[in-house]
Amino acid sequence: MKKGIHPEYKDAVIRCACGNEIHTKSTIGDTSVAICSACHPFFTGKQKFVDTAGRVEKFMKKYGDYGKKNEKKKSK
User: pTM of the entire structure?
Assistant: First the structure.
């Protein structure tokens, strides 16, 4: 490797708003983030689906019986 062209690779701490700290190495140093894997709803299993303006009901009304219709056609 050539000398003097590579950035310095140093220890870094990534701090989340929830208080979680992740120790790693980075070229930019310490960083703070708004959300991490310890508090993100997808990774914690606490994800909630918010129904806005009845979209789920509208979808189920339109496509809810789709699989049942196909089964009826096959059985005939």
Answer: 0.49
